[in-house]
Amino acid sequence: MKAATHTEVYRRYTGTLTAHRLRFWPLGRAGIRTAAKKKLPLVLLLAPPAIATIIFAFAVYTRFALQAGVTPTPFGGAQTSVASVLGSTMMANAAQQMIQVRDQIIACLVSTSLFSLLLISWYGAGLFAEDRRLGAHLLYFARPLTRLDYVLSKLVVVMFFGALGGLLPGLVICLVATFASPEWSFFTQEYDVIGATVLVGVLWVTLISSIVLAVSSLSSRRTFALLGAFAYFMLTFGIASLLAQLQKDDDFMDVSPVLASVRIAGALLQLRDAPQSSLPLAILSVTANIVIAWIVTWTRVKRLEVVA
Amino acid sequence: MSSAAITIQGLSKSYGKVRALDELALTIESGPVGLLGPNGSGKTTLLKLLLGLLSPDAGTARIAGMDPFTPAGRLALRRFVGYMPEGDCLIPGMSAVELVSTLARLSGVSKDDAMTRAHEVLDYVGLDESRYRECDGYSTGMKQRLKLAQALVHDPPILLLDEPTNGLDPKGRRHMLDLVHDLGHAQSKTLLLCSHLLPDVERCCRDVVVLQRGRVVAEGSIAALTMAEGHRVRAVVLGDPAPLCASLAALAIPCEPSRSIGQPAGEGPHEIVAVLQSADCDVLFTAAARAGVSLLSVEPVRSSLEDVFVATLATARNEESA
Description:
The complex is a heterodimer of chains A (308) and B (322).
Chain A: H1 24-35, H2 39-67, E1 70-72, E2 78-80, H3 85-98, H4 101-124, H5 126-134, H6 137-141, H7 147-166, H8 168-180, H9 185-189, H10 191-218, H11 222-247, H12 257-268, H13 279-305
Helix pairs in contact in A: 1-7, 2-3, 2-4, 2-8, 4-7, 4-8, 4-10, 5-10, 5-11, 7-10, 7-13, 8-10, 10-11, 10-12, 10-13, 12-13
Chain B: E1 4-15, E2 18-29, E3 32-36, H1 43-51, E4 58-63, H2 71-77, E5 81-84, H3 96-107, H4 111-125, H5 140-152, E6 158-162, H6 170-186, E7 190-195, H7 198-204, E8 207-212, E9 215-221, H8 222-226, E10 232-238, H9 242-250, E11 255-260, E12 269-275, H10 282-291, E13 294-300, H11 305-321
Helix pairs in contact in B: 3-4, 4-5, 9-10
């Protein structure tokens, strides 16, 4: 039977409808694909972390190459050193002293943290806000999708972009260190640095993602969510710094979730000049921020799924 | 599925002080059904309640035998229902193919079938090469067709269509109505078409439910509702209709010459409208034989759905004020 105005017929679906085991995944993947379509913000936000990663990874590679007695080249090849054996050994010792992988990772994470925050905010701000504004949630919730699936699908998107800026650089440096070190000595002897790098990256991405998603769930437009997220980070940062200065007590630094997470990162990576605020307070601050952000998100999404 | 696709009992929903649905009781059989009502009568609220997108203040509902007000029932029934919302609600940055295939995956269509199925339904609704463009730049007609495609992608037996012809030009409207008619009749979908455009409902649906202020004020088949009181019939008479009218008047049957068809009076066929006492037209044929005129055709005179709608709402309003 044909509809009268055109030539196509309706075809029945002959397959069976089976729920995906990870029901959030198709929506999350589609979200990543759609967000990645706009190339300019992606390039602008990813280029600085990528450049920083390359620089610090090269420094780490240089350290191990000098240690092995070869002159490093920026293109990955290694040429036999023409330096004397004495000079070569001195350079290797100096490199070993001066270039610590741990320090390089910390320096890289510090330099990329702003961009990972920008990445998460840029790609996360519209996730709930735009769905609400356009009514797109009606299309999702008219299907067998639970509230948890919906939230997870948004989390996948924001964590993906967050991981590109906040986790991947550290992992790349660890990977370079592992393969450049003689007999994988970095992996076998300094594996705690790899674990700490992953933990710091996950903590940072989770914290910023949670806050951005919560602000997005409270906003009616992406722009408002973006402004709201930045306002929150800057306001808490400003208040924390001001209180710490006025009270001459570094513990107030933990009022800011960003500074609190830097404190935890310093402890995990055994940073020499780590912030002096209280570590338990920092953990409490970060945990409280994440928990409150998720309570807000969950409550708001509940209203999207079923309006009481 | 039982013949009653949707059963509603005592369903109430208020938004603050505004009562959108007021103890609504309704049974909707399989087939195309129009949900009529003026703006603010509770049509969209009813559709959202049926999908479990709103929670009711009171009452129960069953759609395809499932309860939309429990989490498990809600998830189960959404596999059997396709929903076309009224608003734009399309995701910016996505092309039509991406959107429909993603929503197919969410509905449970397998990964292998999702893209094929997306193309099938987009073909059906007539979204051609533009399906690869981002839907941000679509015209209203294309958006409406895309929304219908996403509702159909998992081939649900029940379709809830909220104002599908909203904002369409005459050509687009005709196309959309053709599709809806095809789905309701040839594809045997149970279809709840929510609209305030009466000709749309008249064209696509067999039954109608008329809502006003959250209550059902009329329901039934369009044929029954538009059947005029007193068995009015229109007959085409060959020759002068005056003797026939006189003959009918003698039988106490009101008759009035309607118009001459194409010829001067007395020469060509004429229309008359008579109000019979029963559905039996024998009396008309007997009178015509007695008057010596031939009847070319006899057909019942129906009210338009618009007449019924206006009359029903007026009656309901009068009853409320009384």
